[in-house]
Amino acid sequence: MAKLNVNGSVREFQAEPDTPLLWVLREQLGLTGTKYGCGIAQCGACTVHIDGVPTRSCVRPVSSVEAKQKVVTIEGLSPNGSHPVQKAWAALDVPQCGYCQAGMIMAAAALLKANPKPSNADIDTAMSNICRCGTYNRVRAAIHLAANGVKRP
Amino acid sequence: MNIASTPVSRRRFIGGSAAAAGSLVVGFHVPALAQAQGATPSEVNAWVVIKPDDTVVIRIARSEMGQGSLTGLAQLVAEELDCDWLKVTTEYPTPGQNLARNRVWGNFSTGGSRGIRESQDYVRKGGAIARVMLVQAAADEWKVPASECRAAASVITHTASGRKTSYGKVAAAAAKLTPPTEVTLKDPKDWKIAGHRVQRLDTADKLTGAQLYGSDIKLPGMLNAAIKDCPVVGGKLKSFNAAAIQAKPGVKKIVRVGDSAVAVIADTWWHAKTALDALTIEWDEGPNARLSSLDIAAMLQAGLDLPEGIVGNEAGDARRAIASAARKIEAVYSYPYQNHATMEPMNATARWTAERCEVWTPTQNGEAALAATAEASGLPISKCEVYKMLVGGGFGRRGATDWIRQAVAIAKEMPGVPVKLLWTREEDMQHGFYHPVTQCKMTAGLDAQGNLTALHMRISGQSILAGLFPQNMQNGRDPVVFQGLNKGGAEGAFGYEVPNLLVDHAMRNPPVRPGFWRGVNLNHNAIYVESFIDEIAYATGQDPLALRRKLLAKSPKHLAVLNAVAERAGWDKPAPAGRHRGLAQIMGFGSYVAACAEVSVSDAGVLKLHRIVAATDCGHAVNPQQIEAQVEGSFVYGLSAALFGGITLKDGRVEQQNFDSYPVLHMSDMPAVETIVMPSGGFWGGVGEPTIAVAAPAVLNAIFAATGKRIRELPLKNHSLKKA
Questions:
Q1: How many domains would you assign to chain B?
Q2: A74: Cα within 13 Å, side-chain hemisphere
Q3: Which of B203, B268, B392 has its CB closest to that of A90?
């Protein structure tokens, strides 16, 4: 049995070493909040944190994640949706279909941790996730809201 | 009521408790409607169920795919019901229940921006009827006339005595009453819940990973399947070497699906997918093995000068007027195939036995999904059921049923075992129902003063109805081809007044399957018309706004949205240094829309979208903040296609595989969007699609203003905007 530290607990699983982390999370550990969108690290729907670094789990072999590294998925970002990013997202009604939003939120949370007051250019660089519904402008506004506590007029 | 500030925790509590009580969204064991649950909720009527704790469950027949109509429809019911909005939750009835109850919930189909506008009448009546029954039940209990009682926020008050009761207390008695046959609906100007910037009902679970999509389903004992359909359009499956992958980890079975696909069933999807990747497959490539985009373009081009077309709109004698015109302007445009590329790839979970077949899937058309399930399962429809999952992006793609048929065919190979079929992104990219491909020749006749006296618009290209629903053709004519170009009507009237007008279609149907792609034919029709109007304006030395105003003088609603964007954008003042503007307007899906784009193009040819002002007159606006979200999203979808999109064929195969070869708009490309929602009342228009159509032409016209380059063929990425 291999081991992963996910959302604060050590989880055991069985998978071939080259299985992408995404599919271990979804199929072995039942954490389906992290989504499959492209499988080639293009869309970001599969974004999780590994030791705080936003990572596209669809191309990350599970064997390359060490047992001591801390993996955080959308389910573990906060116990009850209370992370500032989640609260800002709720305040601005950001999601449409919602499928890409776990990845968006994880990318935004990592950005704000590294850069608490990002500029628009910082946001453009960090947020390369794809949303087909077109929530980009609300995502941007919500990141600013989470960073500055400034509500939309 | 301060609806917009509803705390998340409150909404979460309500949503959570409703889910626990058996809302469909939880859906693993067969979801049942609220009436069947233990805590004695009362079905007042098909739309309204009320629990003793005053929770209001509103039934929603149309599919939610991000467009927000679940919340909008609930607002409309709640408005007439006069219930407490904070106690509202929703659930989907199933297509099977709809069938069993004589389609009491009407049409489930969710496309064509119809969700609100085509259900508003009966869902509002549903809410109003339930309110009358609840008030009557309270009046009966108090032995007073119902006319002496008032309802507000789920509380019924006997005005004279001040006695009060709640909906939850009288719901059981109300459910036993005979519904009134006639109710009076509120005047929209009196709305308190509808018409306001209410927050969505379905946000909280999308922020925590708790929201379950079709691709997330895990049923007890479930297996997973990956599929490959013949990559050549119209080709078939010849053979595959199952033995070579049979021993791969987790593989259970390798099965032929229909006559063109093969699937691997395994314990996990990753095992199924990797085994399928290793499978040697021989295809019968069929008659389209050499088909390329160049062949298709040549086929369409031949239609541009065909003497006769199928007429969509006609006034005067355009051909003769053009022949005798003082001046003639001509331009040829084209629009490529586009894929929907929903973020959630196609998927369905099916469980088949000889007695029953059940399917869990994200669908835009639950009833079509049920019919497809019955057909593919070989069982009567009464022995089938479909559980609709929240749709992870629809855009028209999920009105089809192809993947459902595949999932049922696969499940039939494993009787009694639920099997989840999930497409790869590559499968999704190559087996779409693509936005149809068209070319268009625009010809204008001008008099000596430069006035537009005649216009001939010849569209050559693919008909969606001919490809998908030939039974809906009207004497060989596909009316959907003429979206936004019609002579009058409530759906999409051509606003410009041209004394001699001919809009006609040379139907050219390549073997690539077409589909309804968000905005449908309005997309290219708006590009052709609005680019060409711009060309006429520049060719005759007229201001693009002034020319449009002149031609729209007798179309006041078209004119009003155009004027609104021009005013907000500051058209009468110069744009900021280096920026240039472009306009577009059109009517489609029952609404009037316009956009003004502001762009800059560097000497090196780098385009930057700075700002887009958009206006929408949808008649009645049920939730302005969600309309704004749809307008913003429309620019992302429309501009993704115009700037980057385009499905091409080579050797009979779709060349694009994934988001690396079918790029889309990213956040860094996104302009600021200012949305003017200006409902003028008296009609109900759609919102999800019309704005997409003005996105591209507004930007293309702004690019012309910036560079003098008229882009008539998309996507834009194939053109250099570099200064010559």
A1: 4
A2: 35
A3: B203
Domain limits of chain A? 2-76, 84-148
At how many degrees (to 10) do helices A136-148 and A84-91 cross?
130
pTM of the model: 0.95
The per-residue pLDDT for range A7-35, each reduced to its tens digit, is 999 999 999 999 999 999 999 999 999 99
CATH class assigned to A84-148: mainly alpha
ipTM summary value: 0.98
Domain extent for B115: 3-207
On chain A, the residues whose CB falls within 8 A of the CB of B432 are none
Which one-letter amino acid corresponds to residue A31?
A: L
**Alpha-helix residue ranges (DSSP H) falling in B540-685:** 544-551, 556-569, 624-639
Closest-CA residue of B relative to A22 is B270
Residue-wise pLDDT for B664-716, tens only, equals 999 999 999 999 999 999 999 999 999 999 999 999 999 999 999 999 999 99
Question: For an interface test with B, which of A133, A139, A151 has the most B Cβ atoms less than 10 Å from its Cβ?
Answer: A133
Amino acid type, B338: Q
Confidence of residue B537 (pLDDT cuts 50, 70, 90): very high
**Sheet of A9-13, strand order:** A9-13, A2-6, A70-72, A47-50, A53-56
| Contact call for residues B662 and B429 (beta carbons, < 8 A) | yes
| B398 domain residue, yes or no | yes
Question: With contact defined as beta carbons under 8 Å apart, do B265 and B299 qualify?
Answer: no
Whether B49 maps to a domain, the answer reads: yes
Q: Which residue has the tokens 């999930």?
A: B422
Beta bridge pairs of residue B596: B583, B613
